[in-house]
């Protein structure tokens, strides 16, 4: 599997809506970061689809290397 492109070395702060499904970009190629726009098809990767557990701000991984994808866990500070 190919390595993802680092979109940015900090999390994306986004507003999520409880019960809504989201597709987080795992390849780093999307032009609609942090969400998927289908560019992964050229990268042999797939988005991480998740349902928001609550409404509010969330910190989604921008470096694409977090262990708890799609959420930021501070991994970007070690890259």
Commentary on this structure:
This protein is mainly beta. It has one domain (12-78). Helix content is 0%, strand content 23%. The strands form 2 sheets. It has a two-stranded antiparallel ribbon with strand order 1-4. A two-stranded antiparallel ribbon has the order 2-3. The protein is globular and about 30 Å long.
Structural class by SSE content: mainly beta
Task: Provide the residue-averaged pLDDT.
Answer: 94
Instruction: Compute the CA-based radius of gyration.
Output: 12 Å
Total strand segments: 4
- Pick out the low-confidence regions: none
Beta-strand share of residues: 15-25%
Major β-sheet profile? 2 strands, antiparallel
Tally of structural domains: 1
Task: Give short descriptive properties of this protein.
single chain; 79 residues; two-stranded antiparallel sheet; 4 strands
SSE layout and pairing:
Layout (H helix, E strand, L loop, with lengths): L11 E5 L4 E4 L23 E4 L4 E5 L19
Antiparallel strand pairs: 1-4, 2-3
Brief rundown of the structure:
This protein has one domain. Helix content is 0%, strand content 23%. It is built from no helices and 4 strands.
């Amino acid at each position: 599997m190919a390595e993802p492109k680092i979109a940015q070395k900090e999390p994306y702060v986004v507003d999520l809506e409880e019960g809504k499904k989201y597709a987080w970009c795992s390849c780093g190629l999307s032009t609609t970061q942090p969400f998927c726009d289908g560019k992964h098809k050229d990268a042999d990767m797939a988005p991480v689809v998740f349902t928001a557990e609550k409404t509010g701000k969330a910190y989604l991984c921008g470096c694409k290397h977090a262990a708890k994808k799609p959420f930021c866990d501070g991994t970007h500070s070690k890259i």
